[in-house]
Amino acid sequence: MIRLDYEIIAGIVEPGARVLDLGCGDGELLSLLKEKRHCHGTGIEILPQQILKCMERGVSVAQGNIDSDMDVYEDKRFDYVILNESLQQIMNIEKVLTDALRVGKKVIVGIPNFCNIRARAQIFFRGQVPVTESLPYKWYNTPNLRFLSLRDFRDFCVAKNIVIEKNPCLCEGKQVRFFTNLFADSGIFVLRRD
Amino acid sequence: MSEPLIVKTRFFTFAEPPHPLVLKSGVTLGPVTVAYELYGELNAARSNAILIFHAFTGDAHAAFYHEGDQKPGWWADMIGPGKAFDTDKYCVICSNVLGSCKGTTGPGSVNPATGKPYGLTFPVITIEDMVDVQKALLDHLGIKKLLSCAGGSMGGMQAMTWAVRYPESVHSAIVIAACHRHTAQQIAFHEVGRQAVVADPEWKDGDYYGRSMPARGLAVARMVGHITYMSWVSMEQKFGRKLLDKEKLGYDFSKDFEVQNYLEYRGKSFVERFDANSYLYLTKAMDYFDLAGGRKLSEAFKNIAADLLVISFTSDWLYPSSQSQEMVRALKADDVDVTYVEMQSDYGHDAFLVEFDDQTRAISSYLAKVQRERSLP
Lengths: 194, 377
Description:
The complex is a heterodimer. Chain A has helices at residues 4-12, 28-37, 48-56, 93-103, 117-126, 150-159, 180-183; strands spanning 18-22, 40-45, 60-63, 78-84, 104-112, 162-166, 169-171, 174-176, 186-193. In chain A, strand 2 (40-45), helix 3 and strand 3 form a beta-alpha-beta unit. Chain A is globular. Chain A has one domain (4-114, 148-193): Rossmann fold. Chain A has seven helices and nine strands. In chain A, strands 1, 2, 3, 4, 5, 6, 7, 8 and 9 form a nine-stranded mixed β-sheet that branches. By secondary structure, chain B is of the alpha/beta class. Chain B has two domains: 10-181 and 291-373, 3-Layer(aba) Sandwich (Rossmann fold), CATH 3.40.50.1820; 187-285, Rna Polymerase Sigma Factor, Chain: A. Chain B has ten helices and 14 strands. Chain B has helices spanning 127-141, 154-165, 184-198, 215-229, 232-238, 258-273, 276-287, 297-300, 321-333, 356-373; strands spanning 10-14, 21-22, 28-29, 32-39, 49-53, 79-80, 85-86, 91-95, 110-111, 116-117, 148-152, 172-176, 307-313, 338-343. In chain B, the strands form four sheets. Chain B has an eight-stranded mixed β-sheet, with helices on both faces. In chain B, strands 2-3 form a two-stranded antiparallel ribbon. In chain B, strand 13 (307-313), helix 9 (321-333) and strand 14 (338-343) form a beta-alpha-beta unit. Chains A and B meet through helix 3 and strand 3 of A and helix 9, strand 14 and helix 10 of B.
């Protein structure tokens, strides 16, 4: 079964599009885009063992840093730059998003919602930092550097003059349409410059 | 256990008068003999050929066994049935480089014009010249376009040069622990090696054939080289401060430490298998290596039509990852399909001759990808 976020992203990306996946992990999304949408994809990933998995899937990937490695690309080289579940682990968010919006015509960002109702309940009733299915880490072992809600990210986009074209939101493998900042455990944003 | 796979070195001679090879320096050389070996079968479409390049002191014997030998070729863990370069699927070719002393024409070969070894009358050659000789060999074998070409260290320089110099003749290139140009530090280490050779009184301006070799100088050169091929960690793990057959320090200038003994052994065994003049010519060829040659690197790479796989190793300080990354950035800027991985290893520059598991995973899947994406039978 295909993960819903992958399915949604594959639905957004046009066939034959040129795609850059930042923090592409084991290359599952890239290989899906290649197979289903005949995309010309490449990824940037920091862990060598993940790169070997990408290679076994037949995906092009270069080991490197999201923070600095987009400098080599000219403007609008890609149709889509994807940051799925990687934005919250980035140090220099503004630079990365600026670069992504420069080298990509559109940017797809997928983030977990740190303020969904289950997280809020844990904070309110238990007085503890939430640990949920979409936020499985404890405070001491989380790779996440940024803790944000879907609303926080929307506000950020408004402040930075980034247009949100689409914003499908997900809860437990289903799409949510109302009160997304309360109910969704993650959100996908399709972004572009004006 | 199946029978060991046997291979024989073959020879091909070209550039006979009046059509000598024109070298990068403008000087001509001929005839040129190339020693090479073949593993696996060429398919009917001649689309499954892979050219392997050896490193500095290597030879054409990359895989399988020579009749009666106990040891297989130098990259036998990577080349063979079911291995990274799978000889059940691919036809793998490896040739000895120009200027070497392992069967291909070099300074120790007899100059047919004089009937004596070339010595220092052998022209200074470059990585590009080595590649041109390989191209002539492939033309002779009837191979128009390689599925891939691959090598580590000086072999990686040749792979990169193939992609730049013969863009229409390679579908992909695999560049391991290499660079696009020699840096001051790399030239400096080579210069120490060359000075050790020429300072040996037996060297006699390179005219020592038929007499005693400049063995002492060449051994010292190899000792320096060997240090650069290892890493701080691998030397510490292998030797540390272990003493050599003694309980305490000798307080004299006999060998105290195991590492001293190891280097001496490495130097001595090298002298038995390598020619001092070839050492000079090949180090020079690497020092001259600079694909950009004053241009921007992306400018030098702009005609590349091959896909590239670049591999470096974390503890390689002789050809550090930063040099591979520089190539990868330029390739990306040129829109070349490039895959890059920096593999974790403590073995230093030698890692490409030691770390087989990760290299096999990377290379076998990469070759399959190239074959699939380029629709090659």
